[in-house]
Amino acid sequence: MLQRLIGICQTLSRRGKSFSLCQMLKRGLRLGLGLSPVRHYTLDLRGIYPPITTPFNPLGQLQYQQLVDNVHRWSQLPFRGLVVQGSNGEYPFLTETERVEVVNRVRQVVPADKLVVAGSGCESTEATLEMTKKMAAVGADAVMVVTPSYYRGRLNSAAFVHHYSRVADGSPVPVVLYSVPGNTGLELPLDAILTLSQHPNIIGLKDSGGDITRMALIIYKTRKQEFQVLAGSAGFLLSAYSVGAVGAVCALANVLGEQLCSLEKLCLSGKWEEALELQYRLLEPNTMVTRTLGISGLKQALEWFGYHGGVPRSPLQPLTDTERTDLRAVFTNNGWL
Amino acid sequence: MLQRLIGICQTLSRRGKSFSLCQMLKRGLRLGLGLSPVRHYTLDLRGIYPPITTPFNPLGQLQYQQLVDNVHRWSQLPFRGLVVQGSNGEYPFLTETERVEVVNRVRQVVPADKLVVAGSGCESTEATLEMTKKMAAVGADAVMVVTPSYYRGRLNSAAFVHHYSRVADGSPVPVVLYSVPGNTGLELPLDAILTLSQHPNIIGLKDSGGDITRMALIIYKTRKQEFQVLAGSAGFLLSAYSVGAVGAVCALANVLGEQLCSLEKLCLSGKWEEALELQYRLLEPNTMVTRTLGISGLKQALEWFGYHGGVPRSPLQPLTDTERTDLRAVFTNNGWL
Amino acid sequence: MLQRLIGICQTLSRRGKSFSLCQMLKRGLRLGLGLSPVRHYTLDLRGIYPPITTPFNPLGQLQYQQLVDNVHRWSQLPFRGLVVQGSNGEYPFLTETERVEVVNRVRQVVPADKLVVAGSGCESTEATLEMTKKMAAVGADAVMVVTPSYYRGRLNSAAFVHHYSRVADGSPVPVVLYSVPGNTGLELPLDAILTLSQHPNIIGLKDSGGDITRMALIIYKTRKQEFQVLAGSAGFLLSAYSVGAVGAVCALANVLGEQLCSLEKLCLSGKWEEALELQYRLLEPNTMVTRTLGISGLKQALEWFGYHGGVPRSPLQPLTDTERTDLRAVFTNNGWL
Amino acid sequence: MLQRLIGICQTLSRRGKSFSLCQMLKRGLRLGLGLSPVRHYTLDLRGIYPPITTPFNPLGQLQYQQLVDNVHRWSQLPFRGLVVQGSNGEYPFLTETERVEVVNRVRQVVPADKLVVAGSGCESTEATLEMTKKMAAVGADAVMVVTPSYYRGRLNSAAFVHHYSRVADGSPVPVVLYSVPGNTGLELPLDAILTLSQHPNIIGLKDSGGDITRMALIIYKTRKQEFQVLAGSAGFLLSAYSVGAVGAVCALANVLGEQLCSLEKLCLSGKWEEALELQYRLLEPNTMVTRTLGISGLKQALEWFGYHGGVPRSPLQPLTDTERTDLRAVFTNNGWL
Q1: What are the BP-aspect GO terms (chains A, B, C, D) (predicted)?
Q2: Predicted ipTM?
Q3: Contact across the interface for C276 and A244, Cβ inside 8 Å
Q4: Which among A166, A186, A315 has CB closest to B155?
Q5: Taking the C-alpha atoms of B6, B7, B11 and B17 in order, what is their torsion angle to the nearest 10 degrees?
Q6: C334 near A CB under 8 A
Q7: Closest residue by Cα to residue A165 from A220, A133, A115, A128
Q8: Which candidate, C270, C219, C265, C262, places its Cα nearest to that of C240?
Q9: CB-CB under 8 Å, B295 with A151
Q10: Mean pLDDT computed over B252-264
Q11: Residue D331 is assigned to a structural domain of this protein
Q12: pLDDT tens across A14-64, in order?
């Protein structure tokens, strides 16, 4: 019966209803049934997600219709869902209102069987919790919470445990931890992750750091909690699957979504050799739209693949001609254009 | 006559009027008088500034009356002005409304002959410009703009030059660059600083990095622009004066403001030996309230010195007992408590 | 016939004869037979290698008999060979004479069908070449050359290409590149590796950095050169195999050699699930004897597994009691002791 | 009487005699006279030192006659002494024999009233001690011991304290600590320095890190030990004097020795404004021959200033044409060529 109730909750949640009732229900049931030692996923995260970009016009104005158009196309791919306002969504450049409205618009378009995972992280704990609630209210199935980073000198494990526990306690939807040292300059410490993995409303981690040993260790040490680990980049997707990750959030999925879903399928069905051939050809394009050229590169590539790309907000700058040529060459040389 | 007009403008500005008229006037006069090759400071920044803290109660609510009380006390010290919402002001934890209101309240209390330099930096260029205008509108004499940092992989000199030029073009008040690698994990590149020093509305730099060779080089290479460099910490205040800095914004000035103004005076009057004796005794307390214990330490020290300190917003945590004891020992051992 | 000649050369080389004749012969044959476009391995590196430790007594004196005893035991395991004077061999603490003599002694003990790969890297190019020749003269089958690092500010790709080309030109045995940022603080740049992979006497890379995306990219971009990539740690061994690595040099193989050879076999036979279960249990012990406790930890573990461990030379210090207890717990908890 | 005996010892030592007798004498006297609480410098380090380069011909052969020629010229400048085999002496590229012989040759040429401070650091403690003894035996007045760095993961304060204590215990001449993060990638920790400053045979520190706050703190915290701190670069020489450093070891002194001695004099006589004008003009040339172009740049500059420069040993590469032009421009633009 518990399973069925959880199932109903998940269905409701995917339809954009508020989670709070469901969550309370689930928690109460667990407690009532003495289920606390056994952990059930409140949400199954397995699969591939594009961390979708946010389209702007050259004046920097948010183009909602273009966003909706893109989402329609992404919705036709076998993604598990979309990540809205990961780093590639330029969330630090959006106003509070825009952040919520983007989630709202995406949720309205995305089919009910696909997840909307919304990036609700802010520097302060309270702001993160507020944003979490607002995003949940417009239908986010889960939130992905990036580490605060500004006061890095004092952000030790204790501070992170406090921050995420407080957010997860108050969040109407499940919470996914998000560590992205390439942007924040810091890594969510291993011991903090292990502690937080025991929180009933923290269901997983997106790790973009690319340290595969660390990722394997996290998976191994949290297997009793059935904590779900997602790779944060297409560059190490195959390797992540090889050590037990359940999915990936990859910038490259914005443009090569089908291929990344194929790679997932090959990994899950044990066709590692084929998987590797595909993984190889994704390495360089992935590096280009992440480390080398970032969102500017990704948005340019989107244009080539028929999506609305546009330019990022300033201070990010559009590609130079040389950069555009290099980017094109990499996609061409690997057989994608 | 030009000097007098500039003087009037500055007086107006310190009284909380909009700068835009003054700025246009000054620029027009300069152009009309053929003064462009000669650069006059639009604002004389020389002196010591505390980057004031923002008081919260244990629930995290902003305590405006406590802020005002503190500002009254700081106003009695021979500071050149106050920096509102530097890193120690916990600006990343404030809402947009709070950020502006804090500047507003401070400006109402601070005497007209003291500057209010407001931290208006945001991740995006447009948000920074908007915040700049709002802070100017409530009476900030200048804005101090921290480097964006989230998309660090793409934040090269060209991006920074674009960002700061755009903000300075649109700002009704002069702009001070702000490089604080201890928090952002990146340093505003030297070549970007040199380029930006030529912008008529960029009047200086607060450098908290502590690389004294770099600071000396910036001062040397911008001396034709009469660009004003402020040290970003009390730890290297004497050294900064020794290489030509015009002042300092020091966390420690929140609690030992008088002593830091004395140190300034000793440096400016060439009493280097006395200055050094004083500098020595400030080193350890400074390290404690910056690198070691951060804002939590600074707020604890404020309590001991009779100010409203309180606790920082989460995820920053109050001091542990051990940390409090260590902090106390350092202030005591150096003769300050 | 070419293959047979190469075979003879390899046999000769393993018996401690000079390679130079063989190398000339092979090159000449290739040229004569117009074989330059097709690259054949001069040495097949596939397999697992322990980077063996060097035993010292408490006075820091090298214990050759203990070394020989250990090598006898390691020789009974299905290793491809031994790496002598990798980082775990404390090569920076050995005199020039000791470095050569250790290789000599090991070569005398190791069966002819197992490789002796000797670490011959020094800071200067000429010293590296001299050491390479001496180690080849006492029977090293190949040399593994760590990146110089002291003048890191000037060690760009051009410098590395020059360094390794010069060494490989003059070396009587094949050269393996060695990048170990955990010790040197720098990484051999990707472009330098790609250039060097085309050198006929550079046959592979040991990469201890653990960036699996980079490793995959190196393998992909050098597949035409049949360049052999070895993982530099047991922590990412499975992942390395998943992206096409041909083997591994793992500190942990000093103590858990059989298990690492089993892991290799499981990976090569496509039994990825079993492999993963084994990999998981190796993660923590591996971290302990590398990052956390280093050689001191490895030598302590050797004692527990019946080898001669001893203590490292100073400034490395023996384990504290707490460290020893922690180390023991990790081996015990993972079922190895 | 003690002072006189110490004076005799120092005179002897400067003439290249073994220190061991003197040291024993001094220690015995101190103990006998109950003087341990009062610390007297065993060697007065105050002044400017060039860390001299080692000339090679294009084949990489050490050119002793060129070295001697250079030393003759440097000896005519008001240096306190020469540092032989600092980082600029390419010590990691010299054989053990060359290292000792270079010190020997220099000592034979340098006048008795100038110090020869010899870089004796090796990775292992015992090798460092052996090298120290050999350099003392050929007349080094003191040794400067760079931090080991290869096993950085385990080189904590305890390891450094053990390393330096052991070397200082066994050294016949006083020991100067040497921290150079630009080359080693690590910094000798503050707490290790404070502990080591109490050792009777450790008389100072060369700090090349350029963190002036740290330097000031070291000077302040060791003032009871009269520990002597030398700046490790011309870039922050004035600032170092401003916080109490007693001298400097500057690469730039190889070519602009007279100017650096003038800068010292200006600082010591309190002529800070003149000093600053001179310091400014040294900043860019200093950066060029250290961070930007390193030893290759320094050796090129030596040629322009009439010394024997030559090229560094490989893997360091000679300047490219562009680099040479840039270097020349910097010396010209600052009025030195």
Answers
A1: glyoxylate catabolic process
A2: 0.90
A3: yes
A4: A315
A5: -10
A6: no
A7: A128
A8: C219
A9: yes
A10: 98
A11: no
A12: 433 333 443 444 344 434 444 443 344 589 999 999 999 999 999 999 999
